[in-house]
């Protein structure tokens, strides 16, 4: 087709390819490893360049039972949420999650305040129960994370996990741990390209390789700031395609975490009688958030609801056809 | 694509006659480029130059109007590929596809549903604003009857059929409402274009690929039908998104006028979640009319919200409504935190209060969508307007104490605010991330 060729933009850069998980050949125990990033075109625009790797659909697992998640979400997941390893195994084997994102929520001083050793035991249990790559998030309390994450990093040494998150004010401890144990890193910067770059520069100045980094620019749910995330990611993708290496890292989105905070996902049928079926409304909200952000150039989507995961995997399949 | 001043200058007489009011032809060209004057100010310009210049000044994506009156849908006239470059101007029509083989009761129910598909988000109505009638029965009477019923719902209508007789029959009763005829194909285009011309309705055009589509729009324009819409499909997600992007890019950046029209997508994917995902993607990627076979509110609400979010103007800060917000199971003794109506600021504070699981009120002052520090620096957040908020009926009715938690960054305001309002002013954390700890430790109850 002549016009499709005329429409091609010539890009000089591409997204950095990052490998999640390490198999036996690389010193780990994962039987499935994943490559993310690598795209040399705007999202799914195959006529102008390759998108070598499909976006990753990961599922969020906590180290404690998340008692305040909305009812439709808790009901869909059932009792497995009482046991992180069982929960993770179910996500992979029954729901088809490409990766597990373990959130160490219970280490937070205001929650269970569990010890680094307790957290590391959960990490080990989840690794033993699954064979997919593991993402590990701290509890977002800098002081506690700096205690917990190095111990967890060591417990997972060699597995090439993705650990998060470093910020421009707190990065040295986690960078050192990931360097020592062969993991990759998530750099956090709230919807600001300059801060995102700054984090990437600070981390790489410590000698950490860019091909082991992913950006988290925070995620706005549909209806709650998604347009900011959308535009930051579009700008990031354009910068990367324009050969800005410090912006060319894959992007992770915490879709489930944000979407299930939305009123539209949580409200009961009694509260909002005109908004439709309350059992599936949240699933649609989570899925819509993910589907829209994929169009801006997201690489790792961390989801919560099994039905949203199944549907998103279908969407990804259609996009990559 | 707008011409540069020098390109325009080359087409002018270059006599510097000053008849246009400008000292030189170049000065006139510069004003034209900036759209500060019009070409008819020059009495000497040749017809050839006029045609060239008028062509170049036409919008790269034509503005198309579907329907009539207040409910009419205007799409097109877009100027950028990425919303951060400027903004997207004309939100797409989002509509449901109604087949023409429904029983009378089912059709009536659909029409009623259509009229009621409205939601309120952040103080704005978001609604289904177009409806399509789908020729599945293959019967002109059924198609015309359904079209008439759907038109009565008061939203602009899309007539989906490639059969010219059925389209003509449906137009007998609906043409005055200026429906979109959908439409012309490489096979039927002559008859359908003639129908669009005689009924003065916009026309959607489809073809197997963009080259054939561009060829077809040119043929149709030559017959005098200019209000066109590009029907780029909707079943194959990847192919549709690529066609949408390529068409927009060719129109804006390669001056391909044959594709300088808004697009339309029809999504009939059976699986509702896949269908909704596709529609959200089409809204984000330039589709001017997004039609779907989905009808349930839980599936439509997200699509409408994507439109609302993607088509907000990134140059203007988004605001939440000022007032008193209750988070969790509040009582009159719950804490009251102050913030501004910049949506990002508010949602950050709301998220932290919610995460703390300490029920609390958030007081939102109208600062014209600026954040706390900016608002304070520009005097949009001061003792006066905070006091006015504290004296509002809502606060009086719901808050049983007189203690206000002020954002830490503007602690300097606490003295004047205390004097002005008589409230006890507590200095809260500087960053929202400190709210949870603050509510659990510093806040000791009213």
Topology:
The complex is a heterodimer of chains A (321) and B (446).
Chain A: H1 2-6, E1 18-20, E2 34-36, E3 56-62, H2 71-77, H3 84-93, E4 99-103, H4 116-129, E5 134-137, H5 142-155, E6 162-166, H6 172-181, E7 184-188, H7 193-205, E8 213-216, H8 226-241, E9 252-253, H9 255-259, H10 263-266, H11 278-294, E10 300-303, H12 306-319
Parallel strand pairs in A: 3-4, 3-10, 4-5, 5-6, 6-7, 7-8, 9-10
Antiparallel strand pairs in A: 1-2
Helix pairs in contact in A: 3-4, 4-5, 5-6, 11-12
Chain B: H1 5-11, H2 25-33, H3 47-57, E1 64-66, E2 73-75, E3 93-99, H4 104-116, E4 118-121, E5 124-127, E6 130-134, H5 140-151, E7 157-160, H6 164-174, E8 180-184, H7 189-199, E9 203-205, H8 210-222, E10 228-231, H9 237-253, E11 263-267, H10 272-284, E12 287-292, H11 297-310, E13 323-327, E14 335-340, H12 343-356, E15 360-365, H13 372-377, H14 383-390, H15 393-398, E16 403-406, H16 414-421, E17 424-427, H17 435-441
Parallel strand pairs in B: 3-6, 3-12, 6-7, 7-8, 8-9, 9-10, 10-11, 11-12, 14-15, 16-17
Antiparallel strand pairs in B: 1-2, 4-5, 13-15
Helix pairs in contact in B: 1-2, 5-6, 6-7, 10-11, 12-17, 14-16
The major sheet of chain B is characterized as: 8 strands, parallel, barrel
Low-confidence stretches of chain A: none
- Biggest sheet features of chain A: 8 strands, parallel
Tally of discrete structural domains of chain B:
3
Following the backbone from N to C, one meets helices and strands of chain A in this order, namely HEEEHHEHEHEHEHEHEHHHEH
Average pLDDT over all residues of chain A: 96
* Span between termini of chain B: 62 Å
Oligomer type:
heterodimer
CATH superfamily of chain A: Dihydropteroate synthase-like
User: Unreliable stretches of chain B, pLDDT < 50, 5 or more residues?
Assistant: none
């Amino acid at each position: 087709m002549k016009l499709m060729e005329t429409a091609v933009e010539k890009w000089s850069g591409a997204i950095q390819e990052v490998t999640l998980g390490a198999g036996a050949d690389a010193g780990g125990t994962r039987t499935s490893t994943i490559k993310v990033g690598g795209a040399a075109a705007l999202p799914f625009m195959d006529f102008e360049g390759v998108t070598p790797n499909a976006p990753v659909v990961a599922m969020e697992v906590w180290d404690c039972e998340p008692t305040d998640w909305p009812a439709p979400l808790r009901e869909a997941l059932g009792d497995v949420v009482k046991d992180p390893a069982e929960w993770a195994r179910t996500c992979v084997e029954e729901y088809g999650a490409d990766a597990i994102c373990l959130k160490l929520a219970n280490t937070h001083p205001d929650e269970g305040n569990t010890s680094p050793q307790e957290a590391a035991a959960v990490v080990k249990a989840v690794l033993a129960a699954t064979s997919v790559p593991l993402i590990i998030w701290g509890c977002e309390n800098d002081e506690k994370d700096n205690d917990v994450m190095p111990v967890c990093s060591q417990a997972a040494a060699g597995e090439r996990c993705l650990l998060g998150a470093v910020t421009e004010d707190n990065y040295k401890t986690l960078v050192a741990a990931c360097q020592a144990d062969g993991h990759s890193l998530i750099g956090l910067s709230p919807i600001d390209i300059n801060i995102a770059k700054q984090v990437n520069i600070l981390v790489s100045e410590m000698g950490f390789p860019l091909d082991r980094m992913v950006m988290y620019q925070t995620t706005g749910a549909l209806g709650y700031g998604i347009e900011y995330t959308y535009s930051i990611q579009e700008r990031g993708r354009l910068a990367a395609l324009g050969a800005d290496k410090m912006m060319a890292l894959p992007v992770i989105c915490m879709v489930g975490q944000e979407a299930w905070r939305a009123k539209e996902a949580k409200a009961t049928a009694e509260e909002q009688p005109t908004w439709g079926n309350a059992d599936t409304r949240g699933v649609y909200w989570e899925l819509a958030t993910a589907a829209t952000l994929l169009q801006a150039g997201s690489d790792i989507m961390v989801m919560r609801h099994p039905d949203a995961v199944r549907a998103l995997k279908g969407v990804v399949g259609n996009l990559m056809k | 694509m707008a011409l540069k001043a020098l390109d325009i200058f080359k087409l002018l007489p270059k006599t510097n006659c000053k008849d246009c009011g400008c000292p030189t032809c170049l000065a006139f060209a510069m004003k034209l480029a900036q759209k500060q004057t019009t070409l008819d100010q020059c009495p000497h310009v040749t017809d050839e130059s006029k045609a060239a210049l008028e062509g170049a000044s036409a919008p790269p994506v034509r503005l198309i109007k579907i329907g009539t009156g207040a409910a009419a849908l205007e799409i097109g006239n877009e100027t950028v590929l990425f919303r951060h470059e400027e903004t997207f101007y004309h939100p797409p029509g989002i509509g449901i596809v109604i087949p023409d083989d429904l029983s009378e009761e089912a059709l009536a129910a659909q029409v009623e549903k259509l009229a009621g598909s409205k939601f309120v988000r952040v103080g704005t109505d978001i609604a289904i604003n177009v409806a399509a009638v789908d020729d599945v029965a293959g019967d002109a009477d059924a198609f015309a009857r359904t079209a008439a019923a759907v038109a009565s719902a008061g939203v602009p209508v899309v007539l989906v059929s490639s059969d010219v007789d059925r389209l003509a029959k449906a137009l007998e009763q609906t043409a005055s409402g200026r429906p979109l005829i959908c439409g012309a194909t490489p096979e039927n285009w002559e008859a359908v274009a003639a129908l669009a011309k005689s009924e003065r309705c916009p026309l959607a055009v489809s073809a197997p690929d963009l080259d054939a589509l561009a060829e077809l729009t040119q043929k149709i324009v030559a017959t005098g039908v200019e209000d066109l819409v590009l029907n780029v499909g909707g079943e194959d997600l990847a192919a549709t998104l690529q066609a949408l992007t390529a068409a927009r890019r060719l129109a804006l950046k390669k001056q391909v006028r044959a594709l300088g029209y808004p697009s339309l997508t029809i999504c009939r994917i059976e699986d509702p979640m896949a269908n909704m995902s596709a529609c959200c993607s089409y809204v984000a990627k330039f589709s001017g009319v997004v039609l779907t076979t989905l009808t349930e509110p839980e599936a439509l609400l997200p699509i409408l919200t994507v439109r609302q979010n993607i088509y907000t103007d990134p140059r203007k800060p988004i605001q939440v409504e000022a007032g008193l917000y209750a988070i969790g199971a509040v009582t009159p003794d719950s804490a009251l935190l102050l913030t501004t109506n910049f949506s990002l600021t508010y949602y950050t504070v709301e998220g932290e209060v919610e995460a703390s699981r300490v029920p609390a009120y958030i007081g939102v002052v109208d600062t014209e969508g600026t954040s706390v520090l900016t608002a304070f620096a520009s005097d949009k957040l001061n003792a006066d307007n905070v006091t006015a908020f504290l004296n509002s009926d809502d606060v009086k009715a719901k808050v049983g104490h007189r203690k206000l938690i002020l954002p830490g960054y503007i602690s300097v305001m606490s003295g004047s605010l205390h004097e002005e309002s008589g409230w006890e002013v507590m200095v809260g954390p500087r960053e929202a991330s400190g709210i949870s700890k603050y509510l659990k430790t510093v806040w000791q109850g009213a």
